[in-house]
């Protein structure tokens, strides 16, 4: 199967095999070495000197951790959303009692940084801004450097970033931009199975943590910090994925992070060109198009559901459909982690063959 969804992604065999490593004592010396090594490696990829924690959770757990560790019920929060995951970020804050103000951009477009400036000017009570760097549901990479400049340099607010489908694949310089918390998850560009989430936490975030009153137990970062000091996890970690993480990080750092970003850009360009060459239209605006997931409009005369099932059944290619209101309107091609030109060519060739077979009766 050519699994071309934006996570989970195909895991290279050598990384997958590391999961078969026999279990070790997670409170023993061997684990202490592993934790120290992978935490240092993750910081390099995050481009941060901030604290960095490994959670046994999916990405949503890390989003929740970023909120409950920095905010209190009643805090005013600005959520800039361009899709499903942006909406989720705001929903989590709201469920924990924050007063969430949302600015939404139409699907396929990025956040207009000036709308954030205007909202922060209008409501000085806003304490934190929530942003998804790469909105996987629409294939949009938001202009985080411009947003961060406004949030941090002009207004000095807490900046919480969902970098779940970007960190390690699309440049996100955590410290240079001043991001207070950045969250990501193992099943994305990290070339790993799902199950781990990684979270960077700034000094400013620690200041916010001191006064934060949202309830937290499993995700209380203070607990992770306390245990990291003795090179242990607070709870039993997903050890098998940690063994794989060690191999994946070595591979990423050996290749060089800038080369990894370039490789993602090149494969994304090949995907976009291939799509346009067969007469399909890209969904995301060109200036904010993602290098980890390409969203494609389903032509009006094509049955989208049939297209995806034809791709799967006749060509062994699994694509992602549109989510929520984009269901039936777009499909998405994931190209994070290790993705070859051959795999993308196969997708394009199979689409070319399948499209005429999936025409709606006129
Ligand atoms: N945010 C973004 C941008 C994502 O792409 C995803 C997963 O696809 C999530 C959040 C949610 O992550 P998870 O499904 O690992 O909880």
SSE layout:
Layout: E1 2-4, H1 13-17, H2 29-46, E2 51-56, H3 59-68, E3 76-81, H4 84-95, E4 99-104, H5 113-122, E5 126-132, E6 134-135, E7 140-141, H6 144-154, E8 158-162, H7 174-177, E9 181-185, E10 196-201, H8 203-211, H9 221-228, H10 239-255, H11 257-277, E11 293-297, H12 304-315, E12 317-321, E13 330-334, H13 341-357
Helix pairs in contact: 2-10, 5-6, 10-11, 11-13, 12-13
The structure holds pyridoxal-5'-phosphate (PLP).
Question: Could you explain the architecture of this structure?
Answer:
The protein is 43% helix and 17% strand. It is α/β, with parallel strands linked by helices. The protein folds into 2 domains: 241 residues, 3-Layer(aba) Sandwich (Aspartate Aminotransferase, domain 2), CATH 3.40.640.10; 104 residues, Aspartate Aminotransferase, domain 1 (Alpha-Beta Complex). The strands form 3 sheets. The chain has a 7-stranded mixed β-sheet, sandwiched between helices. Strands 1-12-13-11 form a 4-stranded mixed β-sheet. A two-stranded antiparallel sheet has the order 6-7. β12 and β13 form a beta hairpin. It is globular, with a radius of gyration of 21 Å. The chain binds pyridoxal-5'-phosphate. The site of pyridoxal-5'-phosphate has 12 residues, from α3.
């Amino acid at each position: 199967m050519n699994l071309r969804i934006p996570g989970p992604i195909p895991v290279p065999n050598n990384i997958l095999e590391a999961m078969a490593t026999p279990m070790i004592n997670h409170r023993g010396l061997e684990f202490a070495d592993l934790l120290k090594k992978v935490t240092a490696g993750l910081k390099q990829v995050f481009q941060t000197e901030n604290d960095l924690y490994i959670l046994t959770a999916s990405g949503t757990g890390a989003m929740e951790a970023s909120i409950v560790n920095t905010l209190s019920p009643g805090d005013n929060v600005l959520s800039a959303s361009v899709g499903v995951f942006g909406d989720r970020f705001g929903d989590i804050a709201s469920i924990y009692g924050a007063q969430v103000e949302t600015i939404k951009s139409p699907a396929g477009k990025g956040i207009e940084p000036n709308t954030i400036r205007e909202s922060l000017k209008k409501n000085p009570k806003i304490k934190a801004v929530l942003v998804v760097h790469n909105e996987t549901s629409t294939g949009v990479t938001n202009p985080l450097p411009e947003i961060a400049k406004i949030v941090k340099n002009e207004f000095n607010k807490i900046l919480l970033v969902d970098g779940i489908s970007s960190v390690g694949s699309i440049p996100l310089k955590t410290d240079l931009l001043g991001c207070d918390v950045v969250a990501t998850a193992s099943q994305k560009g990290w070339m790993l199975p799902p199950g781990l989430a990684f979270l960077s936490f700034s000094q400013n975030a620690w200041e916010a943590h001191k006064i934060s009153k949202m309830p937290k137990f499993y995700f209380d970062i203070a607990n992770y910090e306390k245990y990291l000091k003795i090179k242990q996890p607070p709870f039993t970690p997903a050890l098998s994925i940690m063994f794989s993480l060690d191999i994946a990080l070595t591979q990423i750092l050996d290749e060089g992070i800038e080369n990894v970003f370039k490789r993602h850009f090149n494969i994304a360009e090949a995907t976009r060109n291939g799509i346009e060459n067969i007469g399909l239209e890209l969904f995301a605006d060109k200036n904010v198009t993602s290098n980890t997931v390409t969203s494609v409009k389903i032509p009006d005369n094509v049955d989208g559901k049939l297209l995806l099932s034809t791709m799967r059944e006749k060509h062994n290619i699994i694509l992602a459909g549109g989510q929520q209101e984009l269901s039936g309107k777009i499909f998405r091609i994931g190209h994070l982690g290790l993705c070859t030109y051959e795999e993308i060519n196969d997708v394009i060739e199979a689409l070319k063959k399948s499209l005429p077979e999936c025409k709606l009766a006129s």
